[in-house]
Design a protein that fits this description.
five-stranded parallel sheet, globular
Length: 162
Amino acid sequence: MKVAVIMGSTSDLPKVEPAVQILKDYGVDVQVRCLSAHRAHQGLSAFMKEVNENGTEVVITAAGMAAALPGVVASQTVLPVIGVPLSGATLDGMDALLSIVQMPSGIPVATVAINGSKNAAYLALQIMAIKHDEIKEQLQKERQNMEEQALKANQEVIEKFQ
């Protein structure tokens, strides 16, 4: 079980680390790289060649501003690619969001919310759960725990206002 996580800049690391931790908590082997589509395109292409040959099942990409990284990665693989638009200084991530979701036909990138790396990890896990029962079971348990916590919170609200 292997996922590649690629960010465009080391400044993206704090926004990407939560996804890496979730994947590791599920026992997934995670390869993390910082490879800009604009500044390190040859290194990115070399890594994508490796990803296509080493058993990686899903690629998570995180980028801000022009956010070319997810699309460039998707153009080099038929593996599922998940794009995480990251907020920047000027347009607060809307530029990255629009760049990632507006991919041409035939080169899709699944896109999560701005700074939504946690959901990117969970989406990657759901994709892998199609063939890995242990991930599916862990996800189901986590969802059950979420529901129990939500119902407990609901009960506390009911008791407070009765």
